[in-house]
Amino acid sequence: MVKKKKAANPRRSQVERSATSRQRLLSAAAAEFAARGFAGANVDRIARAARVNKAMIYYHFKSKAALYREILRDMFEAVAVRVSAAAQDPAAPAEKVRAFVDAIATEAEARPHFPPIWFREIAEGGAHLDETTVASITGIIGALGRILHEGRAAGRFQAVNPLLVHAGIVGPLRRRLERGGVPGASMVSRDQVVAHVQRVALLALEGPTA
User: Fold this and answer.
1) Domain holding 128: CATH number?
2) What is the dihedral of CA 185, 186, 192, 198, to 10 degrees?
3) Which of 39, 62, 85 is the last residue of a domain?
4) Burial (CB count within 10 angstroms: exposed 0-12, middle 13-18, buried 19+), residue 137
5) Are 192 and 84 in contact (CB under 8 A)?
6) How far apart are CA 148 and CA 138, in angstroms?
7) How many domains is the chain partitioned into structurally?
8) Which residue of 17, 83, 133, 146 lies most exposed, with the fewest beta carbons within 10 A?
9) For position 68, what pLDDT does the model report?
10) 22 with 118, same domain?
11) pLDDT tens readout for residues 106-141
C-alpha cells in the first residue's frame, strides 16, 4: 500500500515564517540601535536589513520604542540570571568576581550589541528603560554589590562603588567587540580579554599589595 503524503499545515508554516521574520527584525534592530542609538535608529533601515516589509515591525512590536524595549529586556534579563548565579555560588569573593566578569563576557559574546547599547543608556540616563528592564539592571548591580560586600567583610576588598566596577568590566569588553581594523586585534582571544579584565577588576578591589 502506498502511503499518502501528509498535507502541509499552512497555519504552521505561517507561524514559522512569522517567528523567523521576528527574529530577523530583532537582530537587525539590535545592530541599528547599537550603531546609532534609539533616536538615530531608522525603522526603514531595520526593515531592509531584516529583509521584511516595514509593516512587520509594527505587526510584531507595535512601535520602534517597543522593539527597543524588547531588545533591552532580552539583554538585561539574560545577564541578570547569569550574574545572580555567580553571586550565589559558595566560592570565595575573588572567584565570584571572576565568574561575574565571565558572565558578562558570555552574554556580550552572544549579543555584540549589548555593551554599546548599555553605554548609550548610561550616557542618556536610562531614558528608554521600562520597569522590567530597570529591575533586571538593579539585579545585576545588586549581585555585584553583594559580591563586593562579601569581599570587604572578609577583609579582601577595598570599598569601591559597584557601578564603577561594572563600568570597568563592560568597557574593555565593548572595546574588544568593536576592535575591527585594529592591527593585531584578531590575535587577542576572548579568554585573554576576560582574564585581563578579571585581573584589573581584582587589582582595583584588592589593592596593589594583595
Assistant:
1) 1.10.357.10
2) 50
3) 62
4) buried
5) no
6) 15
7) 2
8) 17
9) 94
10) no
11) 888 888 888 888 878 877 888 888 899 999 989 999
The grid coordinates listed for 49 are: 536589513
Residue type, 175: R
Give the residue among 174, 170, 152, 207 at the shortest CA–CA distance from 83: 170
Does position 72 have pLDDT exceeding 50, yes or no? yes
> What share of the chain has pLDDT > 90, as a percent?
48
Q: How far is CA 87 from the centre of its chain?
A: 18
Q: Is there a single domain that holds both residue 57 and residue 68?
A: no
Range of the domain at 138: 64-206
Residue 93 has pLDDT above 90, yes or no: yes
CA 64 to chain centre: 19
Residues 101 and 196 both lie in one domain:
yes
- From CA 163, how far away is CA 139, in angstroms rounded? 12
Residue 210, pLDDT score: 44
pTM to 2 decimal places: 0.76
User: How far, in Å, CA of 138 to CA of 154, rounded?
Assistant: 24
Tens of pLDDT along 140-185? 999 999 999 999 999 999 998 998 888 888 777 665 545 444 445 4
Residue with cell 580579554: 193
The DSSP output letter for 7 is: P
Q: Cβ(177)–Cβ(115) under 8 Å?
A: yes
Cα 162 to its chain centre, rounded Å, is 18
Exposure string of 37-68, with b = 16+ CB inside 10 Å and e = fewer, is bbeebebebbbeebebeeebbeebbeebeebb
